Amino acid sequence: MDNSKKSKTVFVLEGGAMRGLYSAGVLDVFMQNGIPTDAIYGVSAGALFGINFKSRQIGRAIRYNVKYAHEKNYMGLYSLITTGNIMNKEFCFDKLVNELDKFDFETFDNSPIDFYAVVTNIETGLAEYIKITDARYGLEALRASGSMPFVSKCVNFEGEKYLDGAIADPIPLQKVLDEGYEKIVVVLTRPENYRKHRECMPYNLFYKKYPKFVKTAINQYENYNKTLDLIKKYEDEGRIVVLRPSKDLKIARVEKNLEKLTAIHKLGMDDCISKLSKVKDYLNISSLCI
Questions:
Q1: C-alpha to C-alpha distances, 237 to 189, 211, 228, 232, nearest whole angstrom
Q2: Which DSSP category does 133 fall into?
Q3: Disulfide check for 47: which of 67, 145, 222, 250 has CB 3.0–4.6 Å away?
Q4: Closest CA to 62 of 218, 252, 264
Q5: CA-CA distance, 140 to 112, in Å (whole number)?
Q6: 8 A C-beta contact, residue 265 and residue 21
Q7: Per-residue pLDDT tens over the stretch 224-250
Q8: 268: exposed, middle or buried (Cβ count in 10 Å: 0-12, 13-18, 19+)
Q9: How far is CA 42 from CA 52, 100, 127, 154, 228, in A?
Q10: Residue 288: per-residue pLDDT
Q11: pLDDT per residue over 82-99, tens digit each?
Q12: Partners of 156 in the beta sheet?
């Protein structure tokens, strides 16, 4: 354990594709109210939307997702058929960040916040936590974190092959505990009492060359539910603060309905506002600008 991280604050951001706009709503309220953190561990959409906290770009995630939801080259079946990736690499990680809704690379790189993208190594089947200090260089690690199995090609980064971080560590609470963070804010994208069930997905067929990855993927639901049990225990003990959707809005992974996209983001903001005092007390923040 790195004892230098003792007593520091960390945000843990679950993924969930477009459910991640809930977390974006939470983070927008955090930015509006000056809620600080020393580190962020983002998984899949949690990483892809969480980067905007470090670049200090309030509202960016919901803005571009609403604006380009129906753009065929953004994300969806057309991109999957034409590129092999449901999330279009050229559009999402070049045109969008450099032209259409510019990402503030300079602010991200100069921020003191440690940012980690969680990925799954398909050779080992294990989670890895890639620290991103140079956002341009780290775009491939971010893309890997959000590359869902079956609808994404493996992402090569620094000589390794990666897919969606949610396969191996969907909510990296244990990781940040092991690293010694004392103040932990967990943002979930499923409502309370949700539990994952085993999925009958053809991992053996699609990834037969990677048996360790297959084993991890098949057992993902067990790991997820055990983590939820740990979250509940630590939340009840007051050791962590958890923000989760107060209701289930039934949003698709690749949602195109603009009202639903806006609603999940608004829910994140509203739920966060209702818990600001609790967050402030937990983090020992004396005042908030509401």
A1: 21, 38, 14, 9
A2: S
A3: 145
A4: 264
A5: 21
A6: yes
A7: 999 999 999 999 999 999 999 999 999
A8: buried
A9: 11, 24, 12, 19, 17
A10: 41
A11: 999 999 999 999 999 999
A12: 161
d(CA 234, CA 230): 6
Amino acid (one-letter) located at 139: L
Other Cβ atoms less than 10 A from the Cβ of 60: the count is 20
Closest CA to 188 of 233, 244, 231: 244
Residue 6 predicted with pLDDT over 50: no
d(CA 122, CA 255): 27
Place of tokens 């959000």: 146
> CB-side exposure of 116: number of CA atoms within 13 Å?
25
CA 22 to mean position of chain CA atoms: 10
The verdict on pTM exceeding 0.90 is yes
